[in-house]
Amino acid sequence: MGNNQTWITEVILLGFQVDPELEVLLFGFFLLFYSVTLLGNGVILGLICLDSRLHTPMYFFLSNLAIVDMSYASSTVPKMLANLVTHKKAIAFGPCILQTFLYLAFAVTECTCLVVMSYDRYVAICHPLQYTVIMSWSVCTVLAATSWVFSFLWALVHTTLILRLPFCGPQKINYFFCQIMSVFKLACADTQLNELVLFVGSVFVLVGPLCLVLVSCTSILFAMLRIQSGEGHRKAFSTCSSHLCVVGLFFGCAIVMYVAPKCHHFQEQRKILSLFYSLFSPMLNPLIYSLRNAEVKGALQRFLGKRRSLGGMVGSILSV
Predict the structure, then answer these.
(1) Cα R_g (the chain), whole angstroms
(2) Which residues have C-beta within 8 Å of that of residue 21, sequence separation ≥ 6?
(3) Residues near 240 by Cβ (< 8 Å), separated by ≥ 6?
């Protein structure tokens, strides 16, 4: 790097360039969505931990997804909310790179979690007699740990490549968080290698897993056609349709963001997609799984029933 180049110490997140009054309204909406995200995923995680009937591989992976969703949203949304309410758009360069790393890591973890959940459903429906052997707790633990470790290593590769670049401006990012492609624009050097690695990596972690999910779903569909009982059809369809809704939301937005060809006005579209991708999708996941899953709804009803019973007992004791 030349002597006339200096490292930038902070980045300006332009975010949503709207009137201050509208920023307050956006703050209220996004705070509500973020609260629902934490509450919904927290409830699912709590139910899975407290209800022994949900101590199965399927719900073990669902609890992993709930943790990823809460972490995923928390990596970007709090700073976005702070920027909206304080009107201070700056973020230090170090936290900006950390935000990029965490966002990438949790995004890839969500991809791998969805693939593992698809495999779990494939084994449960297509090989029900061997399910407990194939999906033993040791196998589930290895699959979950592998998805987390792989995702963070993948994000570390991109972060290391970013830190090799000289950053001397501009300081402004037309985004509400430090999205990796916007961070590339801060560098005063050729970023073709970074962009190539990102594109190849995106194809590997998005298109590849999506193909695996579709293959497993196709196998499940054929297996469902062979199921004789109507109850078996209903349970298999309910589980798979919920999972396909989540997969479609997440992978659809991600592929458009990182793999699809970019049009002239793609920047503003990308901001909207990123918002859906990082906030709305984690918020919708627990709603999709809970509203279409009888076992989760049953666990919630049992928990609320115990709370009412406990409340009644306490009231009786106090009245005495």
Answers:
(1) 22
(2) none
(3) 121, 125, 217, 220, 221, 224
Burial level of 230, CB count in 10 A (0-12/13-18/19+)?
Answer: exposed
Q: Which residues contact 42 (CB under 8 A, 6 or more apart)?
A: 66, 70
Per residue in 20-74, pLDDT (tens digit) is: 778 788 888 889 989 999 998 998 898 888 888 888 898 899 899 999 999 989 9
Confidence (pTM) = 0.83
Query: Measured between alpha carbons, how far is 17 from 10 in angstroms, rounded to an integer?
Result: 19
Task: Tell me the one-letter amino acid at 212.
Answer: L
Distance in angstroms (rounded) separating the CA atoms of residues 257 and 195 = 13
> Is residue 173 a contact partner of residue 11, using CB atoms and an 8 Å limit?
yes
- Greater confidence (265 vs 222) lies with 222
CA–CA dist 242, 237 (Å, integer): 8
- What is the spatial distance between Cα 116 and Cα 309, in angstroms, rounded to a whole number? 38
What is the spatial distance between Cα 103 and Cα 71, in angstroms, rounded to a whole number? 9
DSSP secondary structure letter of residue 203:
I
